[in-house]
Amino acid sequence: MKAVIAGATGLIGTFLVDQMKTDKDVMTVAALTRKSGEQVGKVAWTKVDFDKPADLEDACAQADSAFCCLGTTMKTAGSKEAFRKVDHDYVIAFAKAAKSQGIESFSVVSAIGSDAGSSVFYNKVKGEMERDLKNIGFKSLQIFHPSLLLGPREESRLGEKIGTVGMKLASPLMLGSLSKYKPIHVKTVAGAMLKLAKSPEKGVHHFEYDGMNETY
Question: Hey, which of 12, 50, 56, 100 would disulfide with 69, CB 3.0 to 4.6 Å?
Fold first, then answer.
């Protein structure tokens, strides 16, 4: 596998790159970043401007599998327009660049509750992103729907910590259709993405908590 990853420095992307470093089936990794990087082993840290399609196309040129872990928060983005630009526009721009370079396997991190018709802005943007991805026409499209993500974060937020503790306590009670809301560790999401991309099945496939845990 020759991989290209957008969002390689984020929470899930960092774990995905680390797993690829030691995976014998991964030959090269183009890890996209906004800052200049260097080649470290099989990982080439590649500077791109997501507003420039040519940059993205060049980054995808040598890959056969694309992974998208792009995502921000309303607090970090600062506005709805800026949030949508990252979580929708940049994802679609990356996907189009990958498709233009012959990549037919695309894996993307979305979220539980994604729905293009939702009145909740976050869910609506995620749903529109998924809808537009499906229209690009990849042979294999894997969409991952994690709930609360567990793992090391650069920012420490009290409210998030309280919510995480509460979700962990409630997790054993989340059975059947509620299991998709269980918190999941980022290494599990990354591991499922990598494993499924090795033998991608045709069509569009969605993975929630149970599917990711069973795969990883």
Answer: 12
Answer whether 192's CB lies under 8 Å from 207's CB: yes
Residue 172 burial (10 A CB sphere; 0-12, 13-18, 19+): exposed
Q: State CA 55 to chain mean position distance.
A: 20
Q: Pick the catalytic residue: 126, 180, 182, 209?
A: 126
Active-site annotation holds for 90: no
Report helix angle 53-60 to 91-100, nearest 10: 50
Which positions ≥6 away from 45 have C-beta within 8 Å?
Answer: 8, 31, 33, 36, 37, 38, 39
Distance CA 27, CA 165 (A): 39
Please indicate whether residue 126 is annotated as part of the active site: yes
pTM of the model as a whole? 0.89
CA dist., res. 188 & res. 195, Å (int): 10
Catalytic member of 122, 187, 195, 216:
122
* Residues 12 and 153: beta-carbon distance below 8 Å: no
CB 197 within 8 A of CB 20: no
| Nearest residue to 171 via CA among 200, 209, 127 | 209
